[in-house]
Amino acid sequence: EFALFSNPWRRTRGDWNPLRSGHGTSMAQRILDFLQADPHTFGDDARLWTYPELASWVSVLKSKGLLQRGAKTRIAEQKKDTGLTSTSELLDLFEREAFLELAGLHITEYADANEGQRAVLRWWYDRLLDARKRIADFPVKIVERSGVKELQEEPRCYVGSVHSFKGAEADVTVIFPDVSPAGWREWRARGTARDGVVRLFYVALTRCRDTMIVCDPAGQGVNLMECMN
Questions:
Q1: Are residues 124 and 68 in the same domain?
Q2: Could you tell me if residue 8 is inside a domain?
Q3: Which InterPro entries match (predicted)?
Q4: How many other C-beta atoms are found inside a 10 Å radius of the C-beta of residue 17?
Q5: How far is it, in rounded angstroms, from Cα 144 to Cα 151?
Q6: N or C terminus of the chain: which is more exposed, having fewer CB within 10 Å?
Q7: Measured between alpha carbons, how far is 179 from 159 in angstroms, rounded to an integer?
Q8: Which among 226, 213, 209, 205 is positioned nearest to 162, based on CA atoms?
């Protein structure tokens, strides 16, 4: 099992934002852009892509067996064109067999829409650049499990360090009271050197509106709760 989580206060941390990081177009957005043309996903609202949407999902795919020579460059040059592409334009960009295979998946009737959506998404995933597959695994699993709705919404479970949550609040706060080696040295020094650790734990304790849960340490480091005893 896995749960959706994020840290909107630290978008640059990809490990805290597996669906949307602060670096360029997220893989979740690329998937949404690709599925825009899929009737199994968007029903009557499905349509052909704009050039920005096309550039979004094509840029992470292998060209061999998929695109005509120079197609990625031509698509990138049209990124400011927000009008819809046409079938004839797409046939000029894609290898005919690959494009018709995708079009066939779009119009194939399946036992349920989710099955059709998974087949279309598998077409895209199988053509991903090898270096991009690991990044795509998580959002692909989300779609396969729950559809695209969860990719479109902000997760309501937030993960991060105490520092990253300064100024934030939550109804329920779960704290793992691990102390970094530097924090442990400050605590051992006693006197005013401890103040930073005390302030940090104060921040942790005051993030919750309703319920606070203090767990055992997540790692093998020092337990701040034991330090306080």
A1: yes
A2: no
A3: P-loop_NTPase (IPR027417)
A4: 22
A5: 11
A6: N
A7: 16
A8: 205
